[in-house]
């Protein structure tokens, strides 16, 4: 039974976007801070630190999670995915990202990473969602710029494209 | 908004968690989904010396059927329960209420037992537990005990749980033939804390109505099978008895109005689907 | 003037910004590295709305490892001054309190530590002693002669009182057939961008110079205010902005006081300082829009034609008047007649201070506060006369042939055809179908209404409008202020590629995309070959006071000046190319990456080669061209003149037109508002990027929906801040947003280089009142204020009298006045001991120590005065507090009054309880108690929903313990019984 003392720092290991990573943290360090300031992965944003805004949403072991409500030490051994892992390669956007770009589904881009991670996680399990279902998923995020309509449109569009793309899973990474 | 310092224990066995809870002398908190505890930590509203993470305990990971009840251990997440295909037949009231608990993102982490232990007066899961007359299974290093839901919620975020006990599981009675179940709530936005939430069960003998968001704890009342103005009168008395308060979201009068309205609505709906 | 046609419009062109932002590569302020040794700041903030600051104890915090310094207001007294407002008043508007706090959330100390976690640990240990003062929260109450005065040197809370008359309002009112007034109390709200404030600052003592990186949005007139507050000349304040900013909606103007604070802290500590605001800080301590009390009266004829308006506006700027305030009140000065041709106007503008967060820029900036009363009034006039509100609006609109139209108050409306735009909206937006839906809904007994709003959306504000707060004589003395300098710089590098730099400081509005397109079109090269930078460095980039991202100035002004700079550079390049091709410059065209002859396409030079000529071959550049390497253009529109001697104010350059209508339904039982249809017609001149315009309209609409229905920064009567989390301050989410039908009509602006007008703020002005008008129509109301919460609407729907409690029912707690946050309770219990014994217990400090929940040590200062350290809490919510308890009105052994205060990291509280002891007739005592308590600070801000129940638990706990103590001998089981009884009496009735 590991007991991690408040008084010292601890090494925590998990995979981020498929790559094994270790980072030194305190027992109280939030996963947001571990990702951003420990690993330099600043794509996960901090908007409220009380679990409401959703900017920090990442995927942990395939489920959506507010990174601001997650202790880094509690993610030991977990499989974490962040916005930095959504692209198909350097300079190549994934399906969901490209749909956001086409639909002007972002303005300042601050909330976007969290919404992308929620949708990416959701679409993996629910490839044929209704508009209402997607609206509910996006409803777990705050965006102050777009008015949400283009985000819903982008999500629907991406879902349709991904369904088509699923015939050739080897060619297209998810979202 | 960063948490204060604490020791962190990732329990590998239930005994370890209970031992740590015992050793902390009341200054530990169980960390399950963290969707209520972590915001409070980030706001520094709470300062436990020790956090005991129970989410790696296999023994707490799976819901199970047991003697007429769905037993939901502390490691089960809300989303897992909502995804349980048989839930709508097993505990239809909870199946109706769970989609109202936060958002998909918080349900993916949050646990029904954590919600019960936290005992927010507006929370949906404690309300359902109370409406169904379910049980809370508590365990400490020395003993296990079962507390009826009606005895468990004793005040604003205060419960019958002793400091060295954890909520090991909740037990939700399975759907009974001839009983109808209904849930409804009004919140400012979808996913917000309920201003008023109502859950009703109706069978051939009685109406049981539970109300959340009004008193300092979820509160239930059993009524005979009333209708018409007699039911209105009973709902009105209940609405007044709950001692509604006022906050930035709603007035006391509004809460009473909603108790009368939603109460009637869920009773009607529960009656309708009694078979 | 004004380029028309499609040249600069790229429908749905994807943004150059997006790929990076979508991949997590954005560079927001907290994503940028800091210098080694940078300290992280946490701010200790006031839990009190109004109190003297008696002492700050830093010692405990300084003992914490990692904590380097604790800096207070008095530490900064010598190196800073206040942030001067636009109005000379004796208000020392410092960024940190010195000897008095005036709003909840006001900074009182800065803790600097190795990281933010440790800084917050330190902040928890800073002990501040306050002496409370009465607070004033309501702007009208602040004007009452014996109201608490915030700033003693001013002598009252009234900062400014100006009256204006245009035309002949007296005559118009005296001869009018009808007159009608509306009174509006416009509430507080804020922009709440998803990214909060951030500042990284350092100081070089050798050069006496500051370097500040902040996600500030402008206006850069504030640069002068910051430099002055830091007591350095402008060139010793290098203010930089990060490449990306996570939204602003105006409020990131309010970073300025924190820039001062962190810069000064860096100077004191001798190391760079970084501060990233958290969301609780943001809601309590960033910037609020003004709340305003308006009485608007109209004189009108039988057809509803308005002859005159009389505005009485009382503006509440919070605790301090900070630059650019009171600009919210004057931003609309030229537009006080809205979209209507009204010649006679009277205005009284008063500015008052109250114990609330200071105000500043919030999207719409003064527009919502003006259009709400104006458009409610138009509906009222129609109701009063039994006319169709649409007819009344239409009848009063400025006719198309009147443009450019000079309003009574001095604005020059550039262009428009309001009636045609309205007619198109009514037709294409389907008003007749909507009227049918209303009829059908009403026939079914549902509560359905339709609202209309016409509004003029001003953009590109005149930097001189705020001087209207001064009298003409004061203005004459100070010298005229006017204009709106915008600037752009185009640079050609040695390989002939193009870089554009502008001082527009966007927060996601796609400026880089639009500018790349505009400049590329001028040079005849693909947009991808133009790079645009929008981060600003005041030490190196071209900028002026009007720089920044506000007043919807980008499309109208910044895009235009970039066009101007590119055109100038192109003309130089044309002459360079002409010299080499032996052609006339005017015969050259820039297209397809070439500079070629208009008539002979074989005579050409690659654009890149011409563009690089001044670097490599200056000898080939004609002497009179100079060099063609970098071109900086400034542009200020001549129409933005200074306010004149008669107070005519050309407050803005461009004037878009909006016409909205909507249908809403109010649920009779729950009071919830459902928006059935919403149609918004915009004339924003030439549209440079349809996708971005749609984004601005949709985003503004949803923000306005928030202001109308969900959002309010709520303060209690005692000044406690009550909406401190995003679970209290409710931004709309995807599930709350209805369909929005957007329509366009185009009247190019003749005043802007590209014919564009601003479009980003309009719905924040039009939508709140349009929804309110629909609700008023649905509920048949004359008076209606925001926000349109379900509790409010339900109360308006419901019968006036509630179903009473059943006979014999215990009366509910007395209905509190709105804003009164007093927690009241009562209880009783019986104990076995006699009254005399219980009485003795009450006066015994040892007993109190055991009875006060969580008391660590009780000190007896006198027989009736005790202090204690207590840990109070409910469930997991626990905090340490210093308690001070006094017994008074002693009536031994029958009763006593307990007065107590507690203060600690989670806030403060105070209360009074009367305890009565009566013999119960069998040797025991009946203990009765009543209490009134109020709680402020963090707990009130983040846990208001739970306070009442929490107080019952804590106070009930005290009496339970007292009962236990009094009766806890001899009788087994008694204690438990008593406890149960007391808890029952304090909690829910069984």
Can you characterise this structure?
Chain A: Pfam families: Fer2, Fer2_2. Chain A: GO terms for molecular function: 2 iron, 2 sulfur cluster binding; metal ion binding; oxidoreductase activity. Chain A: InterPro entries: 2Fe-2S-bd, 2Fe-2S-bd_dom_sf, 2Fe-2S_ferredoxin-like_sf, 2Fe-2S_ferredoxin-type, 2Fe2S_fd_BS, Beta-grasp_dom_sf, Diverse_Oxidoreductases. Chain A: It comes from Lichenibacterium ramalinae. The complex is a heterotrimer of chains A (175), B (275) and C (990). By secondary structure, chain A is of the alpha+beta class. Chain A folds into 2 domains: 10-85, Ubiquitin-like (UB roll) (Roll); 95-165, [2Fe-2S]-binding domain (DNA polymerase, domain 1). Chain A contains 5 helices and 6 strands. In chain A, strands 3-2-6-4-5 form a 5-stranded mixed β-sheet, covered by helices on one side. Chain A starts with a strand and ends in a 10-residue tail after the last helix. With 275 residues, chain B is α+β, with helices and mostly antiparallel strands. Chain B has a 5-stranded antiparallel β-sheet. Chain B has a 4-stranded antiparallel β-sheet with strand order 11-12-13-14, with helices on both faces. In chain B, a hairpin with a 6-residue loop joins strand 11 and strand 12. In chain B, helix 7 crosses helix 8 and helix 10 (228-241) packs across helix 11 (252-272). The radius of gyration of chain C is 32 Å and the shape is globular. In chain C, the strands form 8 sheets. In chain C, strands 3-5-1-12-9-10-11 form a 7-stranded mixed β-sheet, sandwiched between helices. Chain C has a 7-stranded antiparallel β-sheet with strand order 29-35-34-33-32-31-30. Chain C is α+β, with helices and mostly antiparallel strands. The longest helix of chain C is centred in the middle third of the chain and has 28 residues, at 554-581. Chain C has 4 domains: 32-133 and 197-276, Alpha-Beta Complex (Aldehyde Oxidoreductase, domain 3), CATH 3.90.1170.50; 158-185 and 289-467 and 641-795, 2-Layer Sandwich (Aldehyde Oxidoreductase, domain 4), CATH 3.30.365.10; 485-635, Aldehyde Oxidoreductase, domain 4 (2-Layer Sandwich), CATH 3.30.365.10; 823-986, Alpha-D-Glucose-1,6-Bisphosphate, Chain A, domain 4. Chains in contact: A-B, A-C, B-C. Chains B and C meet through strand 9, helix 10 and helix 11 of B and helix 3, helix 19, strand 32, helix 22 and helix 23 of C. Strand 1 of chain A pairs antiparallel with strand 1 (7-10) of chain B.
């Amino acid at each position: 039974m590991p007991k991690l003392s408040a008084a010292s720092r601890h090494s925590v290991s998990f995979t981020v976007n498929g790559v094994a990573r270790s980072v030194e943290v305190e027992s109280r360090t939030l996963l947001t801070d571990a990702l951003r300031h420990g690993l330099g992965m600043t794509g996960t944003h901090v908007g409220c630190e009380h679990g409401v805004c959703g900017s920090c949403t990442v995927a942990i072991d395939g489920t959506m999670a507010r990174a601001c409500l997650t202790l880094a030490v509690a993610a030991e051994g977990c499989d974490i995915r962040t916005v930095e892992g959504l692209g198909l390669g350097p300079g190549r956007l994934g399906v969901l990202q490209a749909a956001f770009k086409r639909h002007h589904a972002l303005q300042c881009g601050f909330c976007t990473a969290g919404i992308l991670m929620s949708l990416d996680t959701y679409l993996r399990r629910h490839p044929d969602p209704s508009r209402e279902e997607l609206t509910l998923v996006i409803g777990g995020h705050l965006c102050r710029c777009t008015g949400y309509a283009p985000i819903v449109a982008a999500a629907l569009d991406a879902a349709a494209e991904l369904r088509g793309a699923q015939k050739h899973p080897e060619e297209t990474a998810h979202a | 908004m960063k948490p204060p310092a604490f020791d962190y224990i990732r329990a590998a066995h239930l005994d370890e968690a209970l031992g740590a809870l015992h050793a902390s002398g009341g200054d530990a908190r169980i960390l399950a989904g963290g969707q209520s505890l972590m915001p409070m930590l980030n706001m520094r509203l709470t300062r436990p010396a020790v956090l005991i993470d129970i989410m790696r305990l296999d023994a707490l990971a799976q819901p199970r059927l047991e003697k007429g009840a769905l037993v939901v251990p502390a490691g089960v997440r809300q989303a897992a329960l909502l995804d349980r295909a048989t839930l709508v037949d097993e505990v239809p009231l909870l199946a109706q209420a769970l989609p109202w608990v936060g958002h998909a993102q918080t349900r993916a982490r949050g646990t029904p037992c954590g919600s019960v232990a936290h005992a927010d007066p507006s929370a949906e899961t404690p309300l359902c537990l109370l409406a169904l007359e379910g049980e809370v299974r508590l365990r400490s290093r020395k003993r296990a005990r079962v507390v009826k839901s009606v005895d468990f919620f004793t005040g604003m975020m205060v419960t019958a749980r002793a400091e060295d006990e954890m909520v090991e599981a909740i037990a939700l009675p399975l759907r009974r033939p001839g009983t109808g179940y209904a849930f409804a709530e009004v919140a400012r936005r979808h996913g917000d804390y309920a201003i008023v939430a109502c859950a009703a069960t109706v069978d051939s003998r009685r109406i049981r109505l539970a109300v959340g968001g009004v008193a300092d704890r979820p509160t239930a009342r059993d009524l005979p099978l009333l209708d018409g103005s007699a039911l209105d009168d009973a709902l009105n008395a209940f609405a007044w008895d709950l001692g509604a308060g006022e906050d930035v979201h709603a007035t006391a009068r509004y809460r009473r109005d909603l108790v009368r309205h939603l109460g009637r609505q869920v009773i009607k709906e529960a009656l309708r689907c009694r078979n | 003037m004004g380029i028309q046609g499609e040249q600069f419009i790229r429908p749905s062109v994807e943004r150059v910004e997006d790929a990076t932002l979508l991949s997590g590569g954005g560079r927001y302020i907290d994503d940028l590295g800091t210098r080694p040794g940078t300290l992280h700041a946490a701010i200790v903030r006031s839990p009190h709305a109004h109190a003297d600051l008696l002492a700050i104890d830093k010692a405990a915090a300084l003992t914490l490892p990692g904590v380097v310094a604790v800096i207070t207001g008095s530490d900064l007294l010598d190196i800073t001054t206040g942030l001067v407002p636009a109005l000379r008043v004796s208000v020392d508007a410092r960024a940190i309190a010195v000897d008095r706090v005036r709003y909840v959330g006001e900074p009182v100390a800065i803790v600097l530590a190795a990281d933010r976690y440790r800084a917050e640990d330190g902040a928890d240990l800073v002990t501040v002693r306050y002496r409370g003062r009465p607070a004033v929260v309501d702007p009208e109450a602040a004007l009452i002669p014996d109201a608490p005065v915030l700033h003693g040197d001013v002598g009252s809370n009234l900062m400014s009182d100006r009256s204006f008359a245009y035309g002949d309002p007296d005559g118009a009112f005296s001869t009018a057939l009808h007159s009608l007034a509306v009174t509006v109390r416009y509430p507080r709200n804020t922009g709440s961008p998803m990214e909060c404030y951030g500042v990284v600052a350092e100081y070089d003592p050798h050069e006496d110079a500051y370097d500040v990186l902040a996600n500030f949005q402008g206006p850069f007139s504030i640069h002068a205010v910051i430099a002055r507050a830091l007591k350095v000349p402008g060139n010793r304040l290098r203010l930089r902005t990060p490449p990306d900013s996570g939204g602003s909606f105006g409020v990131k103007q309010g970073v300025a006081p924190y820039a001062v604070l962190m810069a000064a802290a860096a100077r004191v500590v001798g190391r760079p300082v970084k501060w990233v605001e958290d969301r609780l800080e943001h809601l309590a301590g960033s910037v609020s829009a003004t709340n305003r009390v308006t009485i608007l009266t109209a004189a009108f004829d039988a057809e509803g034609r308005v002859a005159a308006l009389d505005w009485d506006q009382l503006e509440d700027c919070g605790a301090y008047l900070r630059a650019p305030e009171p600009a919210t009140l004057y931003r609309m000065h030229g537009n006080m007649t809205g979209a209507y041709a009204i010649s006679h106007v009277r205005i009284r503008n008063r500015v008052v201070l109250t114990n609330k967060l200071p105000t500043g820029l919030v999207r719409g900036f003064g527009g919502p506060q003006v259009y709400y009363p104006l458009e409610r009034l138009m509906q009222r006039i129609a109701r009063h006369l039994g006319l169709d509100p649409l007819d009344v609006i239409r009848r009063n609109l400025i006719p198309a042939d009147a443009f450019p139209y000079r309003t009574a108050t001095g604005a020059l409306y550039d262009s428009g055809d309001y009636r045609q735009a309205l007619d198109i909206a009514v037709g294409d937006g389907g008003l007749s179908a909507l009227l049918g839906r209303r009829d059908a809904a009403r026939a079914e007994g549902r509560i359905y209404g339709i609202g209309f709003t016409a509004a003029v959306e001003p953009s590109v504000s005149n930097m001189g409008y705020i001087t209207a707060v001064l009298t003409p004589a004061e203005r004459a003395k100070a010298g005229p202020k006017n204009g709106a300098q915008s600037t752009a710089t185009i640079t050609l590098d040695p390989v002939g590629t193009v870089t554009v730099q502008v001082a527009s400081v966007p927060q996601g509005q796609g400026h880089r995309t639009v500018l790349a397109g505009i400049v590329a079109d001028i040079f005849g090269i693909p947009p991808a070959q133009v790079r645009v930078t929008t981060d600003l460095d005041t030490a190196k980039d071209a900028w002026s006071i009007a720089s920044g991202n506000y007043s919807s100035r980008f499309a109208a002004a910044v895009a235009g000046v970039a066009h101007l700079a590119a055109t100038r550079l192109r003309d130089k390049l044309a002459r360079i190319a002409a010299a080499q091709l032996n052609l006339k410059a005017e015969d050259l065209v820039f297209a397809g990456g070439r500079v070629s002859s208009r008539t002979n396409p074989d005579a050409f030079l690659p654009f890149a080669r011409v563009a690089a000529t001044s670097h490599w071959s200056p000898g080939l550049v004609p002497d009179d061209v100079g060099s063609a390497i970098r071109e900086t253009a400034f542009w200020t529109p001549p129409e933005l003149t200074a306010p004149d001697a008669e107070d005519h104010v050309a407050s803005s350059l461009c004037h878009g037109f909006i016409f909205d209508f909507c249908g809403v339904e109010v649920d009779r039982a729950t009071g919830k508002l459902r928006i059935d249809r919403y149609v918004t017609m915009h004339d924003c001149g030439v549209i440079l990027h349809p996708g971005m315009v749609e984004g601005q309209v949709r985003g503004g609409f949803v923000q306005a929906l928030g202001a109308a229905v969900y959002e309010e920064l709520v303060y209690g009567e005692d000044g406690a801040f009550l909406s401190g989390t995003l679970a209290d301050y409710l931004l709309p989410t995807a599930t709350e947003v209805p369909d929005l039908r957007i329509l366009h009509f185009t009247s190019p602006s003749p005043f802007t280089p590209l014919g564009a007008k601003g479009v980003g703020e309009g719905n924040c002005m039009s939508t709140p009142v349009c929804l309110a008008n629909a609700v008023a129509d649905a509920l048949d109301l004359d008076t209606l204020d925001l926000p349109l919460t379900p509790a409010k609407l339900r109360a308006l729907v419901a019968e006036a009298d509630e179903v009473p409690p059943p006979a014999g029912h215990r009366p509910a707690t007395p209905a509190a006045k709105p804003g009164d946050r007093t927690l009241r309770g009562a209880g009783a219990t019986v104990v076995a001991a006699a009254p005399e014994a219980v009485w003795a217990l009450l006066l015994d400090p040892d007993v109190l120590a055991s009875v006060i929940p969580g008391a660590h040590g009780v000190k007896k200062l006198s027989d009736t005065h005790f202090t204690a350290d207590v840990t109070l809490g409910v469930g997991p919510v626990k905090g340490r507090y210093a308690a001070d308890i006094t017994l008074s009105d002693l009536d031994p052994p029958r009763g006593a009054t307990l007065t107590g205060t507690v203060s600690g990291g989670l806030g403060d509280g105070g209360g009074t309880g009367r305890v009565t002891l009566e013999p119960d007739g069998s040797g025991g005592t009946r203990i009765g108690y009543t209490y009134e308590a109020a709680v402020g600070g963090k707990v009130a801000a983040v846990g208001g929903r739970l306070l009442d129940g929490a107080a019952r638990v804590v106070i009930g706990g005290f009496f339970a313990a007292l009962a236990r103590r009094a009766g806890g001998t001899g009788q087994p089981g008694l204690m438990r019984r008593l406890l149960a009884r007391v808890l029952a009496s304090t909690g829910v009735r069984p």
